Amino acid sequence: MREAGRILAAVHQELGKAIKPGMSTLDVDRLGEEMIRSYGCEPSFLNYCGYPASICVSVNDEVVHGIPSADRILKEGDIVSLDAGVIYKGYHSDAARTVGVGEISKEAQFLIERTRLSFFQGIKNAKAGNRLFDISGAIEDFAESFGYGVVYDLVGHGIGSSLHEEPEIPNFRPGRLHRGIKLKPGMTLAVEPMINMGTPDVMWMDDEWTVVSADHSLSAHYENTILITDNKPEILSLTEDEKAAGFLELF
Length: 251
Ligand code: MF3
Ligand code: CO
Prior knowledge:
With 251 residues, this protein is α+β, with helices and mostly antiparallel strands. The chain has one domain (2-237): Creatine Amidinohydrolase, CATH 3.90.230. The protein contains five helices and 15 strands. The protein has helices at 2-18, 25-38, 106-123, 132-144, 240-244, and strands at 42-43, 55-59, 62-64, 79-88, 91-100, 149-150, 156-158, 165-169, 188-191, 194-196, 202-204, 211-213, 219-221, 224-227, 234-235. The strands form four sheets. The protein has a five-stranded antiparallel sheet with strand order 8-7-9-14-15. Strands 1, 2, 4 and 5 form a four-stranded antiparallel sheet that branches. A three-stranded antiparallel sheet has the order 3-12-11, with no helix packed on it. Strand 14 (224-227) and strand 15 form a beta hairpin. Helix 1 (2-18) packs antiparallel against helix 2 (25-38) and helix 3 packs antiparallel against helix 4. The longest helix has 18 residues, at 106-123. It starts with a helix and ends in a 7-residue tail after the last helix. 2-amino-4-trifluoromethylsulfanyl-butyric acid binds at residues 45, 48-49, 51, 56, 65, 83, 85, 94, 190, 192.
């Protein structure tokens, strides 16, 4: 899984930098799939429950699971969420990043940065002996402090020899009474805040995949595959640029 994570991080780093106005979301998918295969991995999303592509490419008010299309052209000022998973020797990694296309608004930049930071706030609690929803609650508190809507209808998940394993990992406290399962060393989790600039509500489009914010406000996504240890978690899908930018100090 470390290797699956390292490869996915390299894919995200390259793919994020390749995003330019004028590309179609299908161009993004093709490029991403090529990169994944160049590392000897399989794209895990392709044909998963019928999903027709390797990369979920979700633009602006699209929250997740955008289906790549030759007709959807990225333009300056858009924000685009890139979600990908790879399989290396039978083991999975899953990670997402939201990136700007050319120059983007200050508001969009803040949304992207704060969504990312909500992940790091969450994983400050991702340590053996703590409870799962300690992660969830910290994400919720941080994101809501900016007036953002935490998407309730989609959650993170365990990950390993399958893409989606138990437990479900909400980005909010599901209730006051339960703090969730106890975290143990060796658990591998995909933690993935999905944050709307407006309300938390989402709708599914007629393609039965694309999820959009109900109020059509911008939405951002940040996901990594992490490993629980007795101390700080290990982020298996952090990019080299992110390490160089000091992200290991954020949790
Ligand atoms: N990253 C998504 C998740 O965590 C996976 C996309 S679902 C797929 O659930 F069908 F597109 F693969
Ligand atoms: Co995921």
